[in-house]
């Protein structure tokens, strides 16, 4: 099934899809239409592994029936990407079971929109642990009902109404000059009061004033207020500030603010914050910043974010960062991005990541990249990937890489790929690999390629491969190869192929194998060829030769025949030899 093109997968009927579902690659899974996904049964969804689920687009996720969502296993649910969680519809969310609710990860919870959170039932909200509730953002709680509010056991998360006192305090603070805003005036502000402070006032604050805010106060700052903090102040803020930034706050960072962050500060951003960055913001990050991202942060990057990364950013990610990406994440990189990966980056990818590359990504690998793949990585290539390799890429494979290919991988090689192999590469193929090649390809091999086949390789060729060879290929066979021909291979040769054998080649055939020749095959051998057979070969076939073929025998051949051999000949054969004065027939009175 791995050989199916995405366009073919999209046309599979329900029955055929159920059979193929478990073995589909991530690229093939991404080709499934919403209509196909809608018709999946519970048993079908259970077959999907976390990697396949992660490859589903937002549209595909939204197409999953609610009753199927309720059947997702622990590993399947935990593997859902934030972008996929944000695509869940109201009925899908309400279908989540208690065991599933408690399994939701912080990154998944923060991906829920205010509308999605408001769609949860009260009993579902009550199941959220303190850890899960603490992960929720203030902005997410904007649309929850009074009944849902009561289900929370952490009142700090629930926004409080703004009072007249809050408005008065904020007005007074906004009238102060920057130097008059002392730490004691800031520490007493409630989150609601702080959110009423003007953007202009916050823009005037220095590092000491911003750093004086508590984590709760920092998290309560509005997006506009955060956008007012000067880049120079941001660059000097400590870990407390950076670690407590909310996704909605960082989402409004200007390019200048983002670039002002030191790599050490970037490393302190929570994965949910990194996931909230817009593609434009990711693109604006410096190479030093992107190359400093931690594993959890890299894992939080979405398809749009990864595709937005510049060539310089991608080529400067360290091998550990790339190895941290899930196969589904890696599969969204553009072919151009893949072609820019350096050897250490490429060699650091695991087998699941290699197997998850799309055909387009695989085709984008340069000859240098192909040649640098570890044998285990070559082994991980699926049939669609192997079949899509260009002749130039195949020619770049080293011997140890070629020998790592399994029979099912070799079986999809086409003539253009095989034709690109050097004699050295072809000679390196194992007997099992040789037998896995499509037999008809051997009729297209060049003379140097045929000559490169070892005796061991030639001995295992299927009869169909021998039968596919033309005069050019047969004439290229050396004596060692011909001597390896077995009975089944010999029996597969056509009369014209037999007639193409040279004298030296005929003499190299094992006499014991000649018995495999059919009468039609044997009768096609020319008198001239018969004249080249050695005594052992002649002894095997002489009784079946016709008079015309016997005319090709030499005196030396006939003289070497003993009485038993002569007695085995028919009267007609004996008469032919007598007519040529090679033997004398005794007359009976």
Could you characterize the architecture of this molecule?
- The protein is mostly helical.
- Among the domains are: 6-157; 318-421, no CATH class; 438-514, no CATH class; 526-589.
- 59% of the residues lie in helices and 0% in strands.
- The chain contains 65 helices and no strands.
- The longest helix is centred in the N-terminal third of the chain and has 11 residues, at 164-174.
- The protein starts with 5 loop residues before the first helix and ends in a 10-residue tail after the last helix.
- 39% of the residues are buried.
- The mean pLDDT is 88.
Task: Give the SSE map.
Layout: H1 6-9, H2 14-20, H3 26-29, H4 34-38, H5 42-47, H6 50-54, H7 58-62, H8 66-69, H9 74-78, H10 82-85, H11 90-94, H12 98-101, H13 106-109, H14 114-119, H15 122-126, H16 130-135, H17 146-151, H18 164-174, H19 183-187, H20 191-194, H21 199-203, H22 207-211, H23 215-220, H24 223-228, H25 231-236, H26 239-243, H27 247-250, H28 255-260, H29 263-266, H30 271-276, H31 279-284, H32 287-290, H33 295-299, H34 303-308, H35 311-315, H36 319-324, H37 327-330, H38 335-339, H39 343-347, H40 351-356, H41 359-364, H42 367-372, H43 375-380, H44 383-388, H45 391-396, H46 399-402, H47 407-410, H48 415-419, H49 423-428, H50 431-436, H51 447-452, H52 455-459, H53 463-467, H54 471-475, H55 479-483, H56 487-491, H57 495-500, H58 503-508, H59 519-524, H60 527-530, H61 535-541, H62 547-550, H63 555-559, H64 563-567, H65 571-579
């Amino acid at each position: 099934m791995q050989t199916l093109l995405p366009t073919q997968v999209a046309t599979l009927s329900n029955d055929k899809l159920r059979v193929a579902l478990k073995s589909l690659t991530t690229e093939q899974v991404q080709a499934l239409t919403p209509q196909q996904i809608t018709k999946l049964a519970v048993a079908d969804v259970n077959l999907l592994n976390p990697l396949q689920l992660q490859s589903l687009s937002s549209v595909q996720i939204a197409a999953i029936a609610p009753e199927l969502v309720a059947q997702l296993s622990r590993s399947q649910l935990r593997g859902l990407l934030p972008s996929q969680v944000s695509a869940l519809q109201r009925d899908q969310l309400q279908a989540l079971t208690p065991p599933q609710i408690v399994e939701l990860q912080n990154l998944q919870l923060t991906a829920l929109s205010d509308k999605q959170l408001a769609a949860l039932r009260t009993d579902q909200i009550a199941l959220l642990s303190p850890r899960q509730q603490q992960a929720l953002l203030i902005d997410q709680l904007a649309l929850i009902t009074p009944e849902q509010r009561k289900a929370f056991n952490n009142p700090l998360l629930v926004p409080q109404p703004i009072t007249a006192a809050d408005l008065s305090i904020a007005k007074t603070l906004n009238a102060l000059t920057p130097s008059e805003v002392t730490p004691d005036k800031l520490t007493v502000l409630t989150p609601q009061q702080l959110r009423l402070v003007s953007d202009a006032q916050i823009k005037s604050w220095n590092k000491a004033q911003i750093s004086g805010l508590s984590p709760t106060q920092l998290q309560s700052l509005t997006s506009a207020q955060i956008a007012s903090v000067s880049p120079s102040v941001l660059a000097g803020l400590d870990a407390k500030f950076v670690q407590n930034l909310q996704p909605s706050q960082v989402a409004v960072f200007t390019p200048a603010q983002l670039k002002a962050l030191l790599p050490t500060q970037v490393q302190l951003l929570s994965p949910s914050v990194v996931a909230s960055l817009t593609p434009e913001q990711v693109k604006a990050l410096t190479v030093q910043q992107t190359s400093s991202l931690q594993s959890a942060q890299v894992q939080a990057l979405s398809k749009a974010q990864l595709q937005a990364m510049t060539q310089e950013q991608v080529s400067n990610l360290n091998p550990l960062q790339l190895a941290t990406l899930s196969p589904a994440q890696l599969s969204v990189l553009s072919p151009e991005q893949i072609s820019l990966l350096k050897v250490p980056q490429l060699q650091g990818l695991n087998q699941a990541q290699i197997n998850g590359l799309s055909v387009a990504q695989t085709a984008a690998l340069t000859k240098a990249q192909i040649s640098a793949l570890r044998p285990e990585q070559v082994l991980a290539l699926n049939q669609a990937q192997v079949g899509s390799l260009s002749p130039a890429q195949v020619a770049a494979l080293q011997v140890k890489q070629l020998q790592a290919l399994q029979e099912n991988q070799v079986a999809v090689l086409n003539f253009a790929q095989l034709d690109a192999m050097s004699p050295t590469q072809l000679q390196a193929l194992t007997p099992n690999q040789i037998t896995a090649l499509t037999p008809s390809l051997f009729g297209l091999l060049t003379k140097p390629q045929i000559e490169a086949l070892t005796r061991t390789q030639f001995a295992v060729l299927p009869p169909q491969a021998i039968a596919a060879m033309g005069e050019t290929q047969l004439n290229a066979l050396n004596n060692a190869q011909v001597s390896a021909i077995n009975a089944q291979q010999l029996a597969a040769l056509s009369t014209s192929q037999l007639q193409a054998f040279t004298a030296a080649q005929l003499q190299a055939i094992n006499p014991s194998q000649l018995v495999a020749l059919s009468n039609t095959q044997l009768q096609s051998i020319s008198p001239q060829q018969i004249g080249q057979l050695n005594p052992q070969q002649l002894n095997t076939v002489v009784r079946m030769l016709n008079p015309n073929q016997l005319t090709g025998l030499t005196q030396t051949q006939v003289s070497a025949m003993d009485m038993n051999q002569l007695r085995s000949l028919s009267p007609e054969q004996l008469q032919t030899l007598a007519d040529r004065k090679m033997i004398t027939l005794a007359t009976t009175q």
